[in-house]
Specification:
165 residues; mainly alpha; 55% helix
């Protein structure tokens, strides 16, 4: 019982640290036995190509990736749900994971994030950070490869979403 209380206190401290500071991209959902923290990503679906190439857009993605990675790490998350369907995972994430330099590249990403230098990702030419999947990739990598955590894909098929737009 003491372990559970200590865990709850630690989560409350982490919650206090992150929620107020990041309220524009982060929220908490809670019922009687679970807390779920949601972190929004930069949506590039409705962003022009010109804007996606801007340093300010890239910096927002870099900072949000830092937030996602640090929160997963500090909260010692048991599960991470990515709002990503199997179809989009196969198209966007699968090829990156299969790349022979994946681990080396992501280690470089994490080194920059470890130094709280999200802005240094703008100069890192090994990976395109101005893609919407970059933030998901950082969360997935942190969860699946850097710590023991279960990753869950939780989204409807992209082909269904595309029909709405």
């Amino acid at each position: 019982m003491l372990q559970l209380e200590a865990r709850e206190k630690a989560i409350k401290t982490i919650e206090d640290k992150y929620l107020d500071k990041n309220k524009e991209v982060m929220c908490k959902l809670q019922n009687f036995n679970k807390k779920v923290f949601c972190i929004g990503i930069q949506d590039d679906m409705f962003t022009s190509l010109e804007n996606r190439k801007s340093d300010s857009f890239k910096l927002n993605i870099a900072k949000n990736s830092q937030l996602i990675r640090d929160f997963i790490k500090e909260a010692d998350a048991e599960n991470v749900v990515l709002e990503l369907c199997d179809e989009r995972y196969e198209e966007d994430i699968g090829p990156v994971l299969a790349h022979p330099n994946y681990d080396k590249t992501m280690t470089g990403v994490h080194r920059r994030l470890d130094k709280d230098k999200a802005d240094k990702l703008l100069d890192y030419d090994k990976i395109a950070i101005n893609e919407g999947s970059f933030e998901m990739l950082v969360g997935l990598d942190q969860c699946a490869h850097r710590m023991p955590c279960k990753t869950i894909l939780g989204e409807r098929q992209i082909s269904i979403s595309d029909k709405r737009y």
